[in-house]
Automatic annotation (TrEMBL):
Region (Disordered): 141-179
Lineage: Eukaryota, Metazoa, Chordata, Craniata, Vertebrata
Superkingdom in the source lineage: Eukaryota
Organism: Alectura lathami
Annotated GO MF terms: chromatin binding; transcription coactivator activity
Record protein name field: TAD2A protein
Cellular component terms per the entry's GO annotation: nucleus; SAGA-type complex
GO terms of biological process kind: chromatin remodeling; regulation of transcription by RNA polymerase II
Biased composition (Low complexity): 141-160
């Protein structure tokens, strides 16, 4: 009788192990390949983090949970995009398309610029070349450059403003007037 009881306990433990294994394997309705195509990386990370709690919720509820967070992520991204349009003064979607097109072309143009084009800009003037080299060294070392790079566009600085006769100028000192 004792041997039969031990075998029954062993058999019940095996059944429980199989039940847990089966439940753990059915945690997700989506295989990993579908998950990678379906969600952005942030949601995939959340999915991997929350996977251990899927046993508590069950597979359907867990996938609903992940879907709701994926929707929240998409909504936040869309809100951020609309806020960017609003900050740029865009009020309709036709202008938004133009803005996106111009932004994409500006980004592509920025990527096309290389160090060589910057060097060619300063190569005729040796002092400007030295300033550029020191600025690049500062950038490479992680320090923000202290010396401003002179403009090669040939623009003159604006003349000082004439503040005489304007209300409140008597309260300003000379340095504030200069600024």
């Amino acid at each position: 009788a004792l041997k039969i009881a031990v075998v029954d306990i062993y058999h019940s433990r095996l059944k429980e192990r199989q039940r847990r294994k089966k439940k753990f394997q059915s945690v997700s309705l989506f295989p990993p390949a579908v998950l990678e195509r379906r969600y952005p990386k942030e949601v995939q990370d959340l999915y991997e983090t929350m996977r251990r709690f899927a046993r508590i919720l069950g597979p359907v509820e867990h996938d609903k949970f992940i879907e709701s967070h994926a929707l929240e992520f998409e909504l936040r991204r869309e809100i951020k995009r609309l806020q960017e349009y609003r900050a740029a003064g865009i009020t309709n979607f036709c202008s938004a398309r133009t803005y996106d097109h111009l932004k994409k072309s500006r980004d592509e143009e920025r990527l096309k610029r290389t160090m060589l084009s910057e060097v060619l800009q300063y190569i005729q003037d040796s002092s400007a070349c030295q300033q550029w080299l020191s600025r690049q060294a500062d950038i490479d070392s992680g320090v923000s450059p202290a010396v401003p790079v002179p403009s090669s566009s040939g623009r003159r600085s604006a003349p000082p403003l004439n503040l005489t006769g304007l209300p409140g100028t008597e309260k300003l000192n000379e340095k504030e007037k200069e600024v």
